[in-house]
Amino acid sequence: MSAVLAIAMGELRSSLRNRWVLSATLVMTALALSLALLGSAPTGTVGAMPLDITVVSLTSLTIFLVPLIALLLSHDAIVGEAERGTLLLLLSYPIARWQVVAGKFAGHLSVVAFAVTLGYGSAGVVIGWVSGGADREGAAAFGAMIGSSILLGASFLSLGYLASVCVRQRAAAVGVAVAVWLLLVLAYDAALLGALVADKSRSIPTELVQALLILNPADAYRLFNLAGFGRVSAFSGMAAVSQQSHVPAGLLLSILIAWTAAPLAATAAIFSRREI
Questions:
Q1: Which domain holds residue 28?
Q2: Distance of alpha carbon 68 from its chain centroid, rounded?
């Protein structure tokens, strides 16, 4: 455990030197505050709670931004070290290869968690101060959004690690990371929507569509936050989806955890047999 912690602290220090922590936190804070302040403007007219609107806005932002930040952090975690020649030095110490993967993952996850918590937390504090406070349901939805955003980041960190250990050049890792982001964040939903539009005879079972939807980590995150809380789902237009899908929140979180654990385990297994 001490070796994992030491590697995690080394990754965190490296992120601090490279301004990764500062850059990610500033981007998250600036965008979160902008969306929170601009999005809460019409609440007096429509009668919605400002924090609920903020949850809807930040959920849409997170689906695009957090996976991209996570992949940029993790895509060269293994292959980058190998190209620089520092991986051989690291493995010369009495540590297991799975500890290297676990330590690097813990360090990068701490960067994502810090950026999300501080960036989104500041938006929540500002909205609470401007609106005169938040009720329990709004605060619970906002807290769940922050926690699930970190979990979404963890799943894409794992995918970035898997890409990094499967290629031999950093340029290839960048290409794979971009492809993963485009596939899971953009192309997956577009393809599913296209299939539904083309299926004019409605031969695709609803259960199959629902299963395909929740198997995507980005969609599981979206459903958890936009359909899992009453007021948020009503404002986001997901109330009907929430009533028809009956997907437990625990299942959606389990899918995000599986998308974190499975690629990370595969990364450790491949790395343990890889020749450096």
A1: 2-273
A2: 8
